Amino acid sequence: MDRTDDQHRLTDLTVHVALSGAFEGAYRSGENTTLLPTDSQKNAVYALAAERGPEPVEEFGLALGRHFLAGNPEVECAQVHLVQHAWNRLGERHSFTAAESARRTATVSATRSGASVCAGIDGLMLLNTTGSEFRGFRRDRYTTLPEASDRILASRVRARWVRRSLDGTDWDDEYATARESMTSAFVDTYSTSLQQTLLVMGERVLTDCPDIARVHLSLSNVHHLPALSLYGLQGVVEEKAQRVYVASAQPHGVIEGTVTRNDTDGMAASDPAWTAAEGWPW
Amino acid sequence: MDRTDDQHRLTDLTVHVALSGAFEGAYRSGENTTLLPTDSQKNAVYALAAERGPEPVEEFGLALGRHFLAGNPEVECAQVHLVQHAWNRLGERHSFTAAESARRTATVSATRSGASVCAGIDGLMLLNTTGSEFRGFRRDRYTTLPEASDRILASRVRARWVRRSLDGTDWDDEYATARESMTSAFVDTYSTSLQQTLLVMGERVLTDCPDIARVHLSLSNVHHLPALSLYGLQGVVEEKAQRVYVASAQPHGVIEGTVTRNDTDGMAASDPAWTAAEGWPW
Amino acid sequence: MDRTDDQHRLTDLTVHVALSGAFEGAYRSGENTTLLPTDSQKNAVYALAAERGPEPVEEFGLALGRHFLAGNPEVECAQVHLVQHAWNRLGERHSFTAAESARRTATVSATRSGASVCAGIDGLMLLNTTGSEFRGFRRDRYTTLPEASDRILASRVRARWVRRSLDGTDWDDEYATARESMTSAFVDTYSTSLQQTLLVMGERVLTDCPDIARVHLSLSNVHHLPALSLYGLQGVVEEKAQRVYVASAQPHGVIEGTVTRNDTDGMAASDPAWTAAEGWPW
Amino acid sequence: MDRTDDQHRLTDLTVHVALSGAFEGAYRSGENTTLLPTDSQKNAVYALAAERGPEPVEEFGLALGRHFLAGNPEVECAQVHLVQHAWNRLGERHSFTAAESARRTATVSATRSGASVCAGIDGLMLLNTTGSEFRGFRRDRYTTLPEASDRILASRVRARWVRRSLDGTDWDDEYATARESMTSAFVDTYSTSLQQTLLVMGERVLTDCPDIARVHLSLSNVHHLPALSLYGLQGVVEEKAQRVYVASAQPHGVIEGTVTRNDTDGMAASDPAWTAAEGWPW
Fold first, then answer.
1. Residue ranges per domain, chain D?
2. B19 Cα to chain A: minimum distance (Å)
3. Which of A46, A96, A100 is the closest to B99 by Cβ?
4. CATH superfamily of C120-282
């Protein structure tokens, strides 16, 4: 936090550091001379936050990556993953309250040949109470899902994006624009499937943020099942103005996809953070 | 959710039901004729939400309590605990995004002689970056805590309150006022201890909400330790404008207290929900 | 851990301390002279573990309770809740692996007039693949649950018990006996309801442990629903030797009850730990 | 569960399915004819469990992978991740209790050109109360960690391994051997670093399991800090036979590494499950 002026500023981060490289000797010999303790890595995060400040997280991550490369010749890739928890200001001076659960994220991969940044958001919850259907899907012998002509669409959104280059970025502005693009696309779009909504959301990001080269979206489908039919109460209960749904945490589906600008097709292909973003977490 | 008008409304609840009474026979005989399945209790929650609507949660809980008393002569106390998750509107019509993590709560205890309501809030996170000290406390042989003249004060607030009577309550308005009272008291008060802050918060609620008879507050103390001294980096790192702290989840302290209006001292003493609110969770 | 002999011993505890009493002055005056910091309370737990050892947990809790009473005249009740995580020995000397998820618990309430101990267990998962039915229960207009003549019975068991007196207790032996009593009763009993099973479990504890005065049981009912009928696949899939079930975490029922020895009916009525054990967690 | 014989058998699984392939059309057109609902994918898991049984999990995963390839020409890779929760038998017939927290895992990647299996274990907790040091490590300006000549070594182990081929595997036997190899290596080895312990564990697996080609290990370092020095109590408290430690959940280090048989160096390089196992989870 910055307590210089009367109006304080608060930054709340969780930081992960992963160093990889030519450490085989340490595993084989039992000699530790090349091993920077994870405790020192943790200290470096706090020290650089004190020395240079932690915002924007993308640049703080780049500084951390450079720091680990500089001090450890064995390191080939220093990856720094940062998660920013949002707080809202109370009053004018030094009070805050925890804001919504969506978190801004950044993953920096710093190597000897350069650094890349994978920016993003986790846990953005969006919900439409109408304007969504799911019909005409494939039916196999195990399919029992009825077609839905008016369904609730609720999704927990994870997104990751990369830029054409790191030059001249206003990270805060680009994050705000990308988030607003995804949100407005979700709100505006009549959805025939979460897949179709995903594409619209990704395309909107590319349209609104000209320097973003590609965006990966992972949309958890938080199913909302009509309670009365689910529990056999249709004939028993007269449903008035409201409609009652069961929000089902488990099991649930996840729809993923990457939207790429034509002229940047190959980008990020070998970025380990990007590979992780597109992979499955097991 | 209410989808009657163009502008939909969304209510997101988690509901717990606890029935207690003269059920000894069922335990002894293995005959189940007096046992309403928990599955039917769950169905009743959805059915009454459909038939009468789920808001405000205090009145929905009262309706559920009456329902279980009416249908089950063995029940002596039907307790209904409701947790409301907040969503913010996106646009003008049918879109929403999950709001902050604080949840409005209500616990209804319905008996043959009447019903009581214990209203409240869970998980309200408040933080002051200055305006707090902790000094002059008791020191025993195990005390190593240094005195703090300028500390970060962060707290996760749980509150429960009861009214003089249930008549003529605008539950939404009273919830908003009580929440704003606690928040503004936390923001305004120079804190010499979390205990002192707690009392100010409770008194503010009683002042601003004339029909609330007593309020119980449980303030989790989310310790913020200066990172550089905690990790032995004071001499090494020059801290600039910002100050860096470690937010410590475990272990942590919890400060509790009940603030009561003088003329309502005995109230709620036998309310099982109140007893639970004042007790420890094990 | 005890590393005196070649064969080390390991004890893994989580400890909660709650002090209550005549602290009103500290809340009112903002003077902290009567407040022992929660940090010092935490230190006392580690210090007494070092000085006297942490086992058995019931006696460690009593020592902690006495410590807080002795040093703080304002304290009227010092409550200490201990949770013991189990580890199994690997080999003969100093290696261990985390054991099952059930945890032994103890809650000590130490006052100026004496101390009480509420011993117990949390998270004991028991499951019978047959030998259970649920029929003849009450049906109201919202009841849709079919009668079950051969159901899976799975329960997460929480138990709390108190003794006639604290004299001459072999806490380890009594814990082992009480646990085995509950387990064998669950295994042996043909269940017509979880309520009936609960009573048999409680009575078995009182029979096998002559010094236990009363036992409270809380049985979470982990419903196992036949997958094929739940998902409309009965006609489609031929189920062979096996039966496939969906273990449903939410929503679920909880059955509670207290079994008391006739001649000890009033015991524990005012013990705050017991009140908490019998109450609902909100 | 298998309830054919008097002695029932219980299998407790969590299953994840991920289908990828030529689905671009569905995202673009809003037509859903190529989309098999996630609901049908879930149904297929239950249906195949009923029709063919769910054990061993590696073969159940292969059957599921083949099923999704067969029915969906657009699918290029069907990945199935299975997690098996262990239960111990109570008595001789149909009763069980939840066993330890370690889970057996399997990840199947089924493509048109063949299938691969990545077997493994999650959450295996191992702890040595002595026989571990950490000295001679790199020190930079932020390093404050003291050298440790007798430290507690505790680790939560995640492992993944692949075989030379899928032919003739006794999956249950190989899992038991690999697990025992890792455990005994952890117990037997005097540790100069977790890196060195990791290599010994991996080599032991390759020695004991001749058909395993490579193994990836991820060892979370659950730091155990001496409580008295951590909290400034060394001079105050006399520590007897026992030693008291604080098990620190956060922050913590994770040490990773892959051990490969020389003649199988290139194997698994393109297996998406393997890439995920070696990557970081963000």
1. 1-112, 123-282
2. 21
3. A100
4. Urate Oxidase; (3.10.270.10)
Determine contact: C70 vs chain D, CB below 8 A. Answer: no
- In this structure, chain B runs to a length of 282
Q: Which CATH class is domain C1-112?
A: alpha beta
C266 pLDDT more than 90: no
A25, A33 Cβ separation under 8 angstroms:
no
Is C151 assigned a ligand-binding role in the annotation?
yes
What are the angstrom distances between the C-alpha of C199 and each of B17, C179, C193, C266, D90?
22, 15, 10, 19, 20
Amino acid D40 reads: S
**pLDDT of B48 strictly over 80:** yes
Residue in D46, D125, D239 nearest the CB of C50: D239
The more confident residue out of B122 and A235 is B122
As given in the structure block, the two tokens for residue A178 are 């990308």
Interfacial B residues in 240-279 facing A (CB < 8 Å): 240-247
pTM of the model as a whole? 0.95
Q: Which residues of D touch B250 (CB under 8 A)?
A: 249
Residue tagged 């936090």 (tokens): A1
Residues pairing with C214 in the sheet: C162, C260
Q: Among D53, D159, D60, which residue's Cα sits nearest to residue D103? A: D159
Q: Respond yes or no on whether the N-terminal peptide bond of residue B226 is cis (omega within 30° of 0).
A: no
**What is the DSSP-derived secondary structure letter of residue D166?**
S
Mean pLDDT across A259-274: 83
Q: Are strands C245-260 and D95-98 parallel, antiparallel or unpaired?
A: unpaired
Chains touching B by CB (3 or more pairs below 8 Å): A, C, D
C116 forms beta bridges with: C109
Map residue C236 onto helix, strand or coil: coil
- Nearest Cα to Cα of residue D129 among D195, D222, D238, D236: D222
Higher pLDDT, C232 or C267: C232
Say whether the peptide bond before residue C56 is cis (omega within 30 degrees of 0).
yes
- Report CB contact under 8 Å: D50, C242: yes
D21: left (phi over 0), alpha (psi -120 to 50) or beta: left
Which residue numbers of D belong to the known binding site for O2? 38, 221
Across the interface, of D51, D91, D238, the residue whose CB is closest to C238 is D51
CATH T-level assignment (fold) for domain B119-282 = Urate Oxidase (3.10.270)
* Cα A197 from Cα A217, distance rounded (Å): 10
Name the residue type at position B220: S
Q: Are residues D261 and D208 in contact, defined by beta-carbon separation less than 8 angstroms?
A: no
Q: Is C145 within 8 Å of chain A by CB? A: no
Report H helices in chain D.
24-29, 38-52, 57-71, 171-188, 194-208, 227-230, 272-278
Phi, psi of C114 (to 5 degrees): 140, 175
- Region of C29 (left: φ > 0; alpha: ψ -120 to 50; beta: rest) is alpha
Q: Is B84 annotated as a binding residue?
A: no
A56 preceded by cis ω (within 30°)?
yes
The answer to whether A90 faces chain C, any CB pair under 8 Å, is no
Query: What is the average per-residue pLDDT within C48-60?
Result: 95
The reply, when asked if residue C72 is annotated as ligand binding, is no
Distance CA A129, CA B93 (A): 9
* Fold exhibited by the domain D123-282: Urate Oxidase (3.10.270)
Q: Are B247 and A12 in contact (CB under 8 A)?
A: yes
Q: What are the E-state strand segments in C31-102? A: 75-85, 87-90, 95-98
Which pLDDT does position A167 carry in this prediction?
86
Give me the interface pTM, i.e. the ipTM: 0.93
Please check the confidence at residue D268 and state whether its pLDDT lies above 80.
no
Of the candidates C61, C251, C85, which has an alpha carbon nearest to the alpha carbon of residue C171?
A: C61
Q: Coil, strand or helix: which one is D51?
A: helix
A195 is in an annotated binding site: yes
Whether residue B131 lies within 8 A of chain C, CB to CB, comes out as no
Over residues B131-139, the mean pLDDT reads 97
